[in-house]
Amino acid sequence: MNAFLALLLRDMRIAVRVGGGALMGALFFLIVVTMMPFAIGPDLGLLARIGPAILWLGALLASLLALDRLFASDHEDGSLDLLMMGRMPLELAVAAKAIAHWLTTGLPLVVVTPVLGLMLNVEMNAMGWVSLTLLAGTPALNFIGLIGAALAVTLRRGGLLQAVLVLPLTVPVLIFGVAAANAAIVGPAPFGPPFTILCALSMATFVIGPIAAAAALRAGQE
Amino acid sequence: MAIIDLANPTRFLNFVNRLLPWLAAATVVVFAFGLARILNAPDDYQQGATVKIMYLHVPAAWLAMMCWGVMSLAALGTLVWKHPLADVSGKAAAPLGAAFTFICLVTGSLWGRPTWGTYWVWDARLTSMLVLFLLYLGVLALYWTVEEPGRGSRAAAILTLVGAINIPIIKFSVEYWNTLHQPASLFRKGGSAIDPSILAPLLLMAGGFTLLFLTLHLAAMRNEILRRRVRAMRLIQAQELAEVST
Amino acid sequence: MVVGRNGAGKSSLLRMIAGLICISGGSLALTGGEAEGTVAEQAHYLGHLDALKPSLSVLENLRFWAEYLGKGVAGLEKALDTVDMGPLADLPAAYLSAGQRRRLSIARLVAVERPLWLLDEPTSALDVQSQDRLAGLMRNHLAGGGMIMAATHGPIGLDSALELRIGAAA
Description:
Distance between the termini of chain A: 32 Å
Helix content of chain C: 25-40%
Largest sheet of chain A: none
Distance between the termini of chain C: 19 Å
Largest interface: A-C, 26 and 27 residues
Strand content of chain A: under 5%
CATH topology of chain C: Rossmann fold
Largest sheet of chain C: 3 strands, parallel
Order of helices and strands of chain C: EHEHHHEHEE
Order of helices and strands of chain A: HHHHHHHHHH
CATH superfamily of chain C: P-loop containing nucleotide triphosphate hydrolases
CATH architecture of chain C: 3-Layer(aba) Sandwich
Structural class of chain C: alpha/beta
Shape of chain C: globular
Oligomer: heterotrimer
Number of domains of chain A: 1
Shape of chain A: elongated
CATH class of chain C: Alpha Beta
Strand order of the largest sheet of chain C: 2-3-4
Number of strands of chain A: 0
Radius of gyration of chain C: 16 Å
Number of helices of chain C: 5
Helix content of chain A: over 70%
Radius of gyration of chain A: 18 Å
């Protein structure tokens, strides 16, 4: 079995076995979305209108905070050193870890979204489209957050620093994601253009993210 | 045999093994009676037969809160009296409490669809239940992430007690929040006065749920004790192999 | 053998050769090694940390590194046997003692074939019998044409070792 698959499967196996690791992101998503009405008020009409925005913000925060541990655990037990000495380029190793992370953390977010949409009174038939935008957009959030995680590991500052570095970079994803979701619910703007741009962003960050993260990891060695 | 003798895990396991079949049988019997009375109970003049979801929804809510009470007692047992089985009890009760809260939320949501026209409404009681559910999930997350049983239990016990103090405060503040924003619709539950023909099945269901909780709780405690024994045996195995090959 | 006082830079030297620290000048090459590979790709690094995942079993940990660093998973059981960890193959790595973790890391060196071994204080956490076993493995490696650079405070059982002293009179 080649190195890429081996690393991918290993990360997924660990994420599933370590108690609650994969579901913690979904739980945080649930909590953040629940917090919003306490601040905004239980007006169902208002919640339905800003529902997609709340879902996207929740997914953004949950993705970002979950990425904190991506490189940290490998760095702490010395695995990162050995990962850099493999025959596979570090960029590919980072990509494998990122994909494993999205499968175990990003996908659960997308799966939980319909339930949360229910609580926010989002229209049921539009719920599918909103979930689709999250499905297309969470990879982009993942690969951008990768860069922050790599920088934070080598700088040893952790969570908040990483969020500060990465949040501005995620602005385009947020804009087009919410635009696509809103287009699905209220119209009149079409769903197509923002959605395709969202997919393009995911694909572009799939390339840029691992390259930048690998460079950050190499630059930070001591 | 005094209660304190049960502190010995082996004796506790024997006690549970003998008691469990009776508890399970009692649970089934009480549920059977309860369901029979539900079928005969009158319909609500506004909601029709859907009001009968109440017989699941209300006992589940009572159990959800009672379970946190049980967990709080267990937490005190762990932190203050250092009873050996207290943390096992807390860890076993947490998933059950979460499940009852979940049942309460889901049945409440399904009840809301025909009654209020929507699956979810941010009214005071449902919202308090939702926050309680999140607290349960938090305690469960704590039990799952910490590998070592002892450390995880102490942390979870602290969280449980903090939650116990906080829950009345949360309930109060959620009701206040609800009065600030006029809810979009009003609702009625069950009727203005509780008629005996409704009260009896309700209490029977509550009794059945309580017996169900007791049965599952003791079974879960037994599982947890066995799980810890397996873990200890694995540790010993590793140590023995270390000594043999050294 | 790389010797010197604490803090002289033995570990840093090994990490530099392993490619884990950026070199500000000069170049590294392995004489007699592959032309296209970097030194890091042809070296094993055994540092202070063990690179073991507690939630995976002993065999799963070893298999992962064999697949990632090497070309295949043949000979994993044999590698475990050389460090006498065969019976522990299915035990989760969380239950291992410090010495057992060290031995599992050494099994990695046996399971994946690489010409250069970079060892940072390899005998730490090992009892006498395991140290002898390690010395035997090192002699086999050298006899097969391999090269070893070991940073150490004391003797590690190799008699004909060249000494590289760091931090001596400059």
